[in-house]
Design a protein that fits this description.
Two copies of one chain form a homodimer.
Chain A: H1 7-13, H2 16-27, E1 30-31, H3 32-39, H4 43-55, E2 59-64, E3 67-72, H5 74-97
Antiparallel strand pairs in A: 1-3, 2-3
Chain A binds a DNA duplex (30 and 30 nucleotides) through α4.
Chain lengths: ~100, ~100
DNA sequence: TGACAGTATCAGTACATGCTGATGTCAGTC
DNA sequence: GACTGACATCAGCATGTACTGATACTGTCA
C-alpha cells in the first residue's frame, strides 16, 4: 500500500487552464494552434503551461513539420486515479471501523 | 460521461501539508492536537489548512468537549478517483485509436 | 533566399496564497 | 470566578506563479 498521492503532479494539474488542456488532450491529440483556438488563451501562456505539463511527464510531444503534437500519457492519469482510489478505500475502512485516536 | 475534474477540489488538495493531513485522516480520525504532533506544523497554520479543507467539504468536524475531531469524507476522494479514472480511460481510447486532429 | 507561420524562451508584473505572531473564544478544571 | 488548554480568527509579510509583450528559433513555401 503506497497511500501517498504525488503532490508535485497534483500541483501541476491543479490549474484551471492546465486541467482544461489535459481534458482536451484526453479526447484528441492536438497541437498548440488547436489548443489556442479551443481555450482562447494566448500562445505564450499556453506554451508555458505545456512546458509545465511536459516537464511533469504528463504529456508527450511529437514534432510534425513545424507543428508540435501534444499527447496525454494515460498511465500518469491512471496512476493518479489509483492512488486516490486507494486513499478513498482506506478512508472508507476507517469510517466503517470508526477508527479514532483518543485525545489525551 | 462527466469528464471534468473538479479544479477547486484539486487546488485544495494540491498543497503538501493539506495532502499530508488528508492522508493521515484517511487512516484515523484525529483532532488538531494530533495533527500538530504528526506534522510538526504550527497550530495556526494547521487551523488555516483545516478551514480550507472544511470549506471545500473534504473533511467533517465533530466537536468533543474542547477538542475537535476531523474526519475525512471518503466519498469526496472516491469521486475524484472516479473522475481521474474516467479521464485515463478516455485517454487510453484516444491513444489506442490514435485520434488526432489534423493541422490545417 | 526572403517571408511567414508555429512554437519556445525571456524578463517583468500582478495577484494569490502559505506562513507567522498576536489575539479572541470556548470548554473544562481548580 | 480565575486559569489553562484546544482551537479559530486576524493582519502582515514573503514567496510562488500565472499572465503578458517582446523576441528568438525553426520549418515550409513562394
Amino acid at each position: 500500500m503506497l497511500m501517498s498521492v504525488d503532490t508535485d503532479l497534483l500541483r501541476v494539474l491543479a490549474d484551471p487552464l492546465r486541467l482544461r488542456i489535459v481534458a482536451l488532450l484526453a479526447r484528441e491529440t492536438l497541437c498548440t494552434t488547436h489548443l489556442v483556438a479551443e481555450t482562447g488563451a494566448r500562445q505564450t501562456n499556453l506554451s508555458n503551461h505545456l512546458k509545465v505539463l511536459r516537464d511533469a511527464g504528463v504529456v508527450d510531444t511529437e514534432p510534425c513539420g513545424r507543428f508540435t503534437y501534444y499527447r496525454l500519457k494515460p498511465d500518469v492519469i491512471a496512476a493518479l486515479a489509483g492512488q486516490f482510489a486507494e486513499l478513498a478505500e482506506t478512508a472508507r475502512a476507517t469510517a466503517a471501523a470508526d477508527r479514532k485516536r483518543a485525545c489525551s
